[in-house]
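Section handout 9: paired folding examples.
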Amino acid sequence: MTTRNLDDRVAVVTGAASGIGRATAQRLADKGCHLALVDVDESGLEETRSLVARNDRRRTTHIADVSDKARMQALPDEVAAAHGQVHILVNNAGVTVGAMFDDHSIEDIEWVVGVNLWGVLYGCKFFLPHLKQADWAQIVNLSSMFGFYGMPGQSCYSMTKAGVKALSEALWTELANTNVSVTSVHPGVIRTSLIRSSRIDDPDERAKAIEMADKHGTDPKKAGRLIVRAIERNQRRVLIGADARATQWLSRAFPNGLHSALTFAFKKANVTGMQD
């Protein structure tokens, strides 16, 4: 398998202020990339920028809400003006709301869809002309293990991640005769700030989710290594964590059985909760 040399390449990473975005940026910096770091969290971005500092490589920060069409439309020219060109785009920014669909407000749904789905669409659409000018380029879209099935309590998050998966797979074929390749990334539970920054009204449920992620989640640095390795090897799909690998296998081998098991577990949890 041919391994690409990432030295002196320009990489854009959204959601770079923390978690998988920061870890991926650090790994790309280790490989010699110039970096355009994108996030709404200015202080987090500056911290990431300091972590990836190398005297011989450019690193810029760009405050941007990926769900803002006008801002995202302007971003590629801004990055190109600072770096001269663009080779790698990592659409990583993501948010979630932990709630049953009945309890989702329209505003929460718009927030999740705006960041997770429109953010990826805007990134792909508006950066593509710049990426096509490179000798080779890579789009990396962050989906999730929930892109393989609909998770109760995460209906809208699952919907957006399935959409990212479908978009990435369509682009595999549409861009096959171009210099641009696409990677779809499916993390399982990762020890990041995603859950802490999520909108979960029930404090007990929030605490349980954070504890589970901290105890069982994959280290974001491992996620960053796997993502960058996928860029080097031009892999179409990356599964991060044993939970993601198991989910993909179960969704393919036993699609009805997986949902039956989820339904059973969900009903049992609700009964237990009512008894408590």
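Moving on to protein 2 of 2.
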Amino acid sequence: MKLYELVVVAAVAGASCFGAALYLAPKMEQEAPAPATTSIPHESQAQELQPRLSANSVQLRRENDGHYWANANVDGTFVRFMIDTGASTVALTERDARRMGLDPETLVFDWKVRTAGGEVQGASVLLGSIQIGRIEVKNVEAMVLRDGLEQSLLGMSFLSQMESYEFRRSSLILRQ
């Protein structure tokens, strides 16, 4: 067979397969059973849906408000953070800063920080460590924001120290 004959044979075979697919597709849709609405995966299937976590990983669930929240140990003080990949740094409320032993009266608020609520003043601080479950990052740059922040934000000065972070269905997985 010559090359052009092979091309013609391949084209005819491809068209035949395509035609068969067009013919069978509607029939397969008609014969397919309706999906079960209350199926509960078998235990082995449920485990396959869950990501495998390493020793230095944390899985956070999306909460009812649509956000991911982390309970962290910051230099020995519990702080609840909203995860914010759009924040360039960890941002602390004055209330959380006080709880951690930082005195906002002695901080220098010489940074102008743009937030969703507008521009606010920020004071640069260095946190000794932030620990969430099995992961810990030391020497984390942060800002204490004056006004305009209802909750502390876990931003990229922490997240960029992760090996990866992955959104999977209703989970956020942090890997160090």
